[in-house]
Amino acid sequence: MASRGGGRGRGRGQLTFNMEAVGIGKGDALPPPTLQPSPLFPPLEFRPVPLPSGEEGEYVLALKQELRGAMRQLPYFIRPAVPKRDWRRLPRELKIRVRKLQKERITILLPKRPPKTTEDKEETIQKLETLEKKEEEVTSEEDEEKEEEEEKEEEEEEEYDEEEHEEETDYIMSYFDNGEDFGGDSDDNMDEAIY
Amino acid sequence: MTQAEIKLCSLLLQEHFGEIVEKIGVHLIRTGSQPLRVIAHDTGTSLDQVKKALCVLIQHNLVTYQVHKRGVVEYEAQCSRVLRMLRYPRYIYTTKTLYSDTGELIVEELLLNGKLTMSAVIKKVADRLTETMEDGKTMDYAEVSSTFVRLADTHFVQRCPLVATTESSDPGLPPPAPTLVINEKDMYLVPKLSLIGKGKRRRSSDEDAAGEPKAKRPKHTADNKEPIPDDGIYWQANLDRFHQHFRDQAIVSAVANRMDQTSSEIVRTMLRMSEITTSSSAPFTQPLSSNEIFRSLPVGYNISKQVLDQYLTLLADDPLEFVGKSGDSGGGMYVINLHKALACLATATLESVVQERFGSRCARIFRLVLQKKHLEQKQVEDFAMIPAKEAKDMLYKMLSENFISLQEIPKTPDHAPSRTFYLYTVNILSAARMLLHRCYKSIANLIERRQFETKESKRLLEKSQRVEAIIASMQATGAEEAQLQEIEEMITAPERQQLETLKRNVNKLDASEIQVDETIFLLESYIESTMKRQ
């Protein structure tokens, strides 16, 4: 009991081991006490070695950046969906999706997916290529075509619609602009539902 | 899974597949194996989104599934496989050096798409190669096919496990998820396809030969008409084989640095001969006789048998022990100590890190402790010939960063500190693990910084891309020089400066990522090899 009380009795300042064994001799100045957490970016004593440059390094670098860009364009990149709209307030004709399609899709999606996925992706890529070619045409024509295609296929629509509807920046849409409508081009087909 | 690994996986998934896949993937990595509904409930995403995300992850071999009792399918994520995504550029570049552009594109398509059938790969690659060729020339499928077969023969691509065709007539429902099996022998069997055709250009109008279906809208009806001959046989890139290749490269270059070019060629020959006979996780290769090595040396090298024997003896006597002598028959049987070589490489990495971070005197102390295994404080000062105060300081610095550890040896059973030896030692395995963890953190920091830099200048980047697009389209429609000049001036000089700086910084950060990934490879190989031996 006597040794309790915050260690303020005798024996204060004594360590359990011999200090000399660790290397701090008697009378040596101890390092100053640290009064704040260590800095976020501690000062660098030695400069880091320069990165490898040269043909191989640059090729791999370019490859890496290319891959990053390419993966964003592939159908495997899933973008967050457009929020639900309140269909009571909008004209019914703007709602393209039919309820029946949705039900079918959910039940058959998972078991069929593993073998079928690659074909879907290929088709999607093909579709995207097709649609890119037709970008310059009048938008109403695009609408009609898309409706036709939607009636044929089911799942790919989502991927395509989401590409159009992206919330984050994606440069595909404005890349093929010919510069005439500089700012307001991306409002086409925005009001289509995802599901 | 450490926090650093999870953070890095999350960044990688988000960059390559988007936020939804990232959320699902990270959740699976954190919590282990889970069924579909639980995932949807725990992450708060809709069932649709979860399904899509899981499809993408399974397609890319990042998530596997298993059927449990009562028909519940559980999904499990492979964290280490996600981390491999950092290495994709290196795999592709390696294939380029070995099999030129065709091979490079094959592996790139396989990595970008996860799994593909052989016919799909060949078509895609032929199309891409045709794009880059001059007008009028096309890439023949047969060429691409032969490169694919070569890749399969050297095991760089392998078949994915197939859907098991069960003979038992199971009355009732089919199983909720297929069980996939693969036979060792069949893994590299190339199906016999008679693919005749050439690559198609994307926008050419002269490829529509009569009878060939247009590559436009009714594509899926065309697929239904002609059944794909290798339907269901999917191929993926064999990452283990690439790792084996990287390891061999590292060993050969280490020998070249330590000795000379000829000895590195000898070691390379030995490794090449053991490629197929030794599994990648064996501690040493099969013994090779000196005569065999002599016969398999590359044609350009004409060194005599005696010289070869001398080199082999030198290599076997080297203290690094990359090559060991295991017998005397056939002119001397030699093996390559793979595990020892990996340990050497890992140790060299540690030494290099200590040197670059703390200075060459610290590195001297580190190497000393490595060599002598256990040293007391006083002995360190004596052997390293460094004054006591500095030696102390350096030792504590390294101790605090966990490169060096303390080993206690008590003299008395009560472990009294004044009567205990405290010895400094280097535990290579734990130091390697610590360094690996730091590497993961470094890459996560690099990626975050790069994203931050890009986000800062997002507006400027968008503007410059738009301007480029305008210029490109105007050039295509034939505009005058003055107009182009005007459009280019839309980006002011300080903005150009900013863009330049951004590009330089992003390049530097990317190059650093690639560099850190090489270190990760060495450390991971060493740790894996050590764990396998225990």
Automatic annotation (TrEMBL), chain A:
Residues 138-170, 178-195 have a biased composition (Acidic residues). Residues 109-195 are annotated as: Disordered. GO terms for cellular component: RNA polymerase III complex. Pfam families: RNA_pol_3_Rpc31. InterPro entries: RNA_pol_III_Rpc31. Residues 116-137 have a biased composition (Basic and acidic residues). Keywords: Nucleus. It is found in: Nucleus. GO terms for biological process: transcription by RNA polymerase III. DNA-dependent RNA polymerase catalyzes the transcription of DNA into RNA using the four ribonucleoside triphosphates as substrates. Specific peripheric component of RNA polymerase III which synthesizes small RNAs, such as 5S rRNA and tRNAs. Component of the RNA polymerase III (Pol III) complex. Belongs to the eukaryotic RPC7 RNA polymerase subunit family. This is DNA-directed RNA polymerase III subunit. It comes from Nomascus leucogenys (Northern white-cheeked gibbon). The gene is POLR3GL.
TrEMBL record, chain B:
Belongs to the eukaryotic RPC3/POLR3C RNA polymerase subunit family. Residues 350-426 form the DNA-directed RNA polymerase III subunit RPC3 winged-helix domain. It comes from Microcebus murinus (Gray mouse lemur). This is DNA-directed RNA polymerase III subunit RPC3. Component of the RNA polymerase III (Pol III) complex consisting of 17 subunits. It comes from the Eukaryota. GO terms for biological process: DNA-templated transcription; positive regulation of innate immune response; positive regulation of interferon-beta production. GO terms for cellular component: nucleoplasm; RNA polymerase III complex.
